[in-house]
Fold this protein.
Amino acid sequence: MIVKGARVLDGSANAMMKGKGTEDDRPWQSYHTVYTTAKAGMELVDKEKVQRVVYEMSKGSKYFQNEERKEAFIKQKIDNLRIQCANLTQEDLAHYQKVADRRIVELEASRDLSRIWLHVDMDAFYAAVETLSNPTLKGKPMAVGSMSMLSTANYEARKFGVRAAMPGFIARKLCPELIFVPTDFKKYTYYSDLTRKVFGRYDPNFIAGSLDEAYLDITEVCRERNVKSEEIAQELRAGVYEETGLTCSAGVAPNRLLAKVCSDINKPNGQYVLPNDRMAVMTFVSSLPIRKIGGIGKVTEHILKGVFGINTCEQMLEKSSYICAFFSQSTADFFCSVGLGLGQTDSPQVRFRKSISSERTFSATKDEVLLHKKLEELAEMLSADMQKEGLSGRTLTLKLKTASFEVRTRAVTLQKYISSSEDILKHAKKLLQAELPISVRLIGLRVSQFNGDKCSAKSDPTQKTITNFITSGDVNRNCSSFPDVADHDFVSNAETDMSIDSRQTGQLDWRDPFDGNYLSDVDYQSCTVQKSDGVEEVSLSPLVLPYITGFRN
DNA sequence: GCGGATCAC
DNA sequence: TATGGTGATCCGC
Ligand SMILES: Nc1ccn([C@H]2C[C@H](O)[C@@H](COP(=O)(O)OP(=O)(O)OP(=O)(O)O)O2)c(=O)n1
Ligand SMILES: [Mg+2]
């Protein structure tokens, strides 16, 4: 037994810790920035140098210290999980393997290769739009945003390691020539609308994600015109360029999850088609790093790699017994689906907003008069946004980010629905009062539980009804856990966005990443059978498995 | 229902 | 000098 666990232990973190003085000689190597994923256009970047510069610029800051704290927390989580992993008995593993195998068979049976999905994503969108407005920027490294934060960077700047979500002052260190352009959401919204008109030619019901991307079901177009998906993709991209002067990239695959992965492969200004063939899908997915999958971010990647040695989607299946042992069923389903290359193939699903919020960052202060003023402004902004959509809600959440970057939220659920700035402020003040004194750098307000929301069921009065979702019995299955875009009717989309710098902007994309903690505290065990490896259908009864974490602080 | 965390863009 | 804003989901209480 244990052998398996031990092997996992050897494989990951140990390897990283060996080698000489990693910690002492090259401290930046152990600082895991968020800029880890291989973004398009950054293949030739000297990652070691970028890492070092980012580290040098960040070292010692409040932000950095908080990142270190969070990282230590995750590291401990991984250590605990590995111990639990090593403690699994042969019997445990045999059981979980059965559970996993059965789930995999069920998931496989759900595979649908009948649809052709196309994901289109604009290249360096904000930056490209700014270059249209000011052609002298062409060919020069440029970023959209401020000295504090960048929204994105063009491909010339990416060669230096400059990218979205990077503070401008660090970017300038990486690329002294970098040109900064402030964000202008009106422009982005205008061009976004132009691209969507083109998308509509190929799928009137296309699913708009953020301003710069969309999913199109091109099954019908391909069939009606008897053309290959590749030609549709070419034509669509040419159309977008013609209408806007902007380039984009496209990915075609049997489902949205894979189409999204594909659109990134030949970016910028390229496309990639994954045929509707099971073997092609399995081959594609086998070597695919899990981090490429939407919904698997930095932390999930670290945990899966550090605890189970999972790097590729294929390994999700190889380690499926461990996955079923440690994660909730919906999360395990998602991970196994990824291993099988499965994803959403249906089109409907219209989502409704579930919350609305407003938040602002400012220089940290504990001045209560000032904080109250900020709160008042936020209440007014939020109320105004709610009026625009005729919303009122009964849960109010106050968000604070302390001077040390720790985030706190405090919520109240009221008897009555509120929407006026006065009502919001009245309750927000009480929430804030309870936290004083405190030095914060951000305050946010969020309202949820809208009037008209169906608490248990789903249908929404606003109009379109959500069709699927965890409807009737059929618990889980690949329902909500799949990262995947919803949102439809791009109409009414334009506006209310927020930019990085401070200004208002508009954005209205909403995805539904599965995400979350996904660590299952309970799991399934054959309650009676013991072993008797027969076909015996193990009844899934919750069993308290490790439950590793729980150490919150 | 609350609070923390993760993720995407 | 300086590390964003909006929305969603999930887990464990
Ligand atoms: N952390 C982020 C990431 C992106 N964006 C904005 C700016 C981008 O222009 C736009 C689209 O995001 P993408 O991830 O598609 O990035 P780009 O379109 O800029 O580049 P590319 O798609 O070519 O990689 O969303 C943002 O505000 N904050
Ligand atoms: Mg893009």
Q: What stands out?
A: Chain A has four domains: 2-86, 90-111+282-340, 116-276, 349-549. Residues 90-111+282-340 of chain A form a domain with the DNA polymerase; domain 1 fold (CATH 1.10.150.810). Residues A 39-40, 121-126, 151-152, 164-165, 210, 212, 267-268, 500 surround 2'-deoxycytidine-5'-triphosphate (ligand 1) (CB under 6 Å). Residues 1-22, 457-483, 485-499, 501-553 of chain A have pLDDT under 50 and may be disordered.
